[in-house]
Amino acid sequence: MARKGDGLIRWTIVLGLIGAVMSQQSTVSQKLYEGSQKFALNFFKKISEFVDSDPSVTTTNIIISPLSVWTLLALLTEGADGKTLRELLDVLNVDNQNDIKYNFKNLIDTINVNTSEVEISSLQLIFTDITQQRQQAFDDNIVQFYGQDLLRSLDFNSSPQARK
User: Fold this and answer.
1) N or C, where is the chain less crowded by C-beta within 10 Å?
2) Is residue 97 included in any domain, yes or no?
3) Domains in the chain: how many in total?
4) pTM of the model
5) How buried is 4 (Cβ within 10 angstroms: 0-12 exposed, 13-18 middle, 19+ buried)?
């Protein structure tokens, strides 16, 4: 029977296996790889502490993707500057934005697997309010450095569209 806190141990093993695969990929910046791994472990630690300390949490069947959270925060660094950028980089465990910008595609390509036996893929999107104009440089950087158009504009005031 699963006990609270067991999930962190299981995920540490999974991260170790992913790390073994990624460490063999020389095209991924070592700093970016280490930063994403450190973020994932810290993320799981915080979630595990929350689950263990909150009596209202009655299940250990929780699925969370720290990679998805990490990649979305990494994408947001493109639109941040000053204190916000420094805080994002600190949370992501990355020294500078260029480590993310120039190695992100390689990191995602390393993680995404498509063989006849298994397929692993990830996709993150950023939804912005259609009434708020984004800076063109932000849009251009997302497309150029992150591989595809990951931005979607929605009318947040239109309930049916916003719910989809």
Assistant:
1) N
2) yes
3) 2
4) 0.69
5) middle
Structure tokens at 46: 């915080």
Look up residue 148 and give its DSSP letter.
S
- Asked whether residue 60 falls in the same domain as residue 131, the answer is no
Domain that holds residue 86: 6-66+80-121
Residue 120 sits at φ, ψ, to 5 deg, of: -125, 125
The CA distances from residue 21 to 30, 40, 112, in Å, are 13, 16, 11
Measure the CA–CA gap between 103 and 84, rounded to whole angstroms.
21
Count of H-run helices and E-run strands, the chain: 7, 4
Distances in whole angstroms, Cα of residue 107 to Cα of each of 32, 99, 100: 8, 11, 9
Dihedral sign computed on CA atoms, order 25, 101, 155, 64: positive
pLDDT in tens, 108-126: 777 777 777 777 777 778 8
Q: Is the residue at 73 inside a domain? A: no
